[in-house]
Amino acid sequence: MAIATVNPTTGSTEMIIEPHSAEEVQDRIAKAAEAARLLRGSTFAQRTQWMLAAADILEDQAEGLGELITVEMGKPIAQSIAEVHKCVKAMRFYAAHAEGFLADAPLADPSSVGASRAWTRYEPLGTVLAVMPWNYPLWQVIRFAAPALMAGNSGLLKHASNVPQAALFLDTLFERAGFPLGSFRALLIGGSEVAAVLADARVKAVTLTGSEPAGRSVASIAADHVKKSVLELGGSDPFIVMPSADVAAAAASAVRARISNNGQSCIAGKRFIVHTKVYDSFAAEFVKLMSELSVGDPLDAATQVGPLATAAGRDELAGLVEDARALGAQVLTGGTIPEGPGFFYAPTVLAGLSEGMRIIQEETFGPVASLYRAADREDALRIANQTTFGLSSAVWTNDAEEEEWFTANLDAGAVFINGMTVSYQELPFGGIKRSGFGRELAADGIREFCNLKTVWKA
């Protein structure tokens, strides 16, 4: 895949970027390793000053960066600008809390281990490689970079090849803010070159957000070299609606969950599992709202759904719908590729799904929703847990006992009750099963790329 900006609204190529040569890659790894040494010796106060300066740069350029994101991957402009501001908030969060998250923790009774004093401390690992996707070109990177840098690590970014302008912006952001040369640099390389970078002894760990095949590959390479890895992979999140729920509110939230980021979000609700008692009323409202969405130019503030980021992604989504349709699924709205340029797909709702359809197990990365009728809560749970994924989930109920039952039994990294899944810097984020392992954000995220060192003193 070429390193290029292909505008998904028009299908036209706007910029082609020359990849880095082998010599340039080696130079960047060397500078990152030296930066890691300098960052390890810096203070939290210094890193806080630099991180706040980087946040200010982002905030000052929010409008322009929002337009860049929209042109590169197609999300509605208001969501692109909101992504920039979300990054700013996370950077300021880690600037404020990193020192506390990584503070030494003394053992309350050191005499129990025969010591006068015993404690644990967190220390940076060194240079960490980040392999990041296109769907949140800034947020996915910043939610790793902010805690990693505040912990005293340096970072190397292998960004998705279709968002090179976002990569180039991030390439200089932290140095512009005062961080040492090489603290966080982009590697403009193809996916086939990741293995060699990860194998380099100067690279100490890796984090990847992306597809399951990419995660398997990176994790296996990291394991071969005994290096830490964190994976955030796909999701096919259940959105469960029970009889006690506010059905109208659930339907409205379901639409937002499904079409946010043009449906290209790992943590979006994708499978809408509705108790039979409220299925008909929910389905009617959900289909009505989905059919009324405005699809068009994402730079137009009135647009609610823009194009898919790539032609391949649009075609893969259409293939899932056609497979389900051919095997008897009902298309309640949408199910078509609009005429004209760009990588658009109509907001779609499918029902009557059955075993054998690919969509039962595979992730729908676009504005396509699957509706399931559940006989009772046990049936709803069975449907929710039947996929190989386990990223997040949502449950709509006003029954306290039901809330606890679903929370305890859903196979997921998170459960959102009476709301849609959203990532917050204050809460840990990650999945189980084939959605990956490890956590980002909150205190857990900054500690992932630290050595937890035990100290014992006689």
Automatic annotation (TrEMBL):
Domain Aldehyde dehydrogenase, chain residue ranges per copy: 3-455
Entry EC no(s): 1.2.1.16, 1.2.1.20, 1.2.1.79
Source organism per UniProt: Arthrobacter ginsengisoli
Keyword vocabulary terms for this entry: NADP, Oxidoreductase
SUPFAM superfamilies assigned to the protein according to its UniProt record, in alphabetical order: ALDH-like (SSF53720)
Pfam families: Aldedh
Family per similarity comment: Belongs to the aldehyde dehydrogenase family.
InterPro entries per record: Ald_DH/histidinol_DH, Ald_DH_C, Ald_DH_N, Aldehyde_DH_dom, ALDH_GabD1-like, GABD/Sad-like
GO MF term set: glutarate-semialdehyde dehydrogenase (NADP+) activity; succinate-semialdehyde dehydrogenase (NADP+) activity
Top-level EC class: oxidoreductase
The name this protein goes by in its record: Succinate-semialdehyde dehydrogenase/glutarate-semialdehyde dehydrogenase
Record PANTHER family: SUCCINATE SEMIALDEHYDE DEHYDROGENASE [NAD(P)+] SAD (PTHR43217)
